[in-house]
Design a protein that fits this description.
Two copies of one chain form a homodimer. Chain A has eleven helices and five strands. By secondary structure, chain A is an alpha+beta fold. Chain A has two domains: 3-169, NADH Oxidase (3-Layer(aba) Sandwich), CATH 3.40.109; 176-214. The first copy, chain A, has a four-stranded antiparallel sheet with strand order 1-2-4-3. In chain A, helix 2 packs across helix 6. Chains A and B meet through helix 1, helix 2, strand 1, helix 5 and helix 6 of A and helix 1, helix 2, strand 1, helix 5 and helix 6 of B.
């Protein structure tokens, strides 16, 4: 195994950071690495908002469900799927932009995720730790407003970046056979494999919490899926010009 | 700049591959690196189908818009956003799964993209070249059928992998100031910046095609956005259990 694969496989979310600051040069370099990711038909549909203002940070931390590391991390970035610059491009050529297609929502969202994963890896390669913050979608309308996001853009997730002040274990993933299939999808053996995997997750949580958390993967997932998942999302996205057809 | 950031910034799509085969061990290692990417609330919602069958490959190449490298590449992977295993998990605990939320579509799609980007980087770190194939969404219904994909899953994109038999230039990206904003979004200067960037893209295409392709970024984007974007997508995804609310 090479060193880059080693780095990829050693990822853990970091939620506690030292006071050491992160230079703007390093952030710029990470964002440039993000830009270098593949982009669907060269659309380059990701915009990053670096949030420095402390009042905005506190609001974001609260809206994300009181995740205080959003406030505390040396750097906080918001990754936005953004087709506003495509509107500008159409305006430059007096062209009418056809928008609202679900396909465009997919390409912009995927662009943003590929970009962000490069940023995460670039940051980790510099000894930094990161955590993705999907919680900003709790209050996606307020987040969009405070960041002054235009029509045809939405905040997909945030990311805290800083030097790690904790050293959590890597969380075990599903067995390879569950996620890699040959030629055709088959889930014939997946329930058995998940039940087996559940044991390792129970052991992981027990070791990490000194026996307090007693939970398997399938329990956690099934519990989560009995609740509504941010039911405001579709109407918000439609109001921003997405998912209309 | 460190070597990992160098690697990230040197990405180009590779569409022509040598005959050298890629071992299953390398692919397994890349997919395991994919699994190590961050995953929203630990949902692990990506499934990879490795397509070896030559008849299936030919069909996929045709459906993707006659992209012959889909047929020719040593390895072809299809990345699927997959919540079928979450249904299995709910069944294991006699829990009713609430599905169809747009939020779930976002998390599964993002999970898949983060996973795939790790696979791409792992492959490139082994000297391999890759290209993402969004074209499989042209015929997303047929692709899903031939891969036997269950409800609550959809093929997001494919990826060709192999040893490069070409050495294209890195494509210049938008100026950093267009994609990285401080505290609030502002596009006041973006039209000017895009016009400036257009010059470098025109030069890039001219150099790459011996003067034949004379096109800027904003022209390309504005041309593309005057056409409908895979208008079948929303009804297909709804039929698979996604984006219903």
């Amino acid at each position: 195994m090479n060193k880059i694969i080693d780095l990829l496989k050693s990822h853990r979310s970091i939620r506690k950071f030292t006071d050491q600051s992160v230079s703007q040069d390093v952030i710029n370099s990470c964002v440039a690495a993000g830009q270098a990711a593949a982009t669907s038909s060269f659309i380059q549909a990701c915009t990053v908002i670096q949030v420095n203002n402390s009042e905005t940070r506190s609001s974001l931390a609260e809206w994300a469900g009181n995740q205080k590391y959003v406030d505390e991390a040396p750097i906080f970035l918001v990754f936005c799927a953004d087709m506003n610059r495509h509107k500008l491009s159409c305006d430059m050529h007096d062209a009418e932009m056809l928008s609202g297609f679900t396909e465009q929502f997919i390409t912009a969202t995927v662009d943003c995720a590929l970009f962000a994963q490069n940023v995460a890896i670039a940051a980790e390669s510099e000894g930094l730790g990161v955590v993705y913050i999907g919680g900003i979608r709790n209050k996606i309308d307020k987040v969009s407003e405070v960041l002054n996001l235009p029509e045809l853009s939405y905040p997909v997730f945030g990311m805290c970046i800083g030097f790690p002040d904790q050293d959590p274990e890597v969380k075990p993933r599903l067995p390879l056979e569950v996620v890699l299939k040959q030629d055709k999808y088959s889930d014939d053996q997946d329930t058995t494999r998940i039940a087996e995997y559940d044991k390792s997750i129970r052991a992981y949580y027990q070791s990490r919490t000194g026996g307090q958390k007693d939970m398997t993967w399938s329990e956690q997932i099934s519990g989560m899926l009995q609740k509504e998942a941010r039911p405001h999302m579709l109407s918000f996205l439609k109001s921003r010009g997405f998912l209309q057809k």
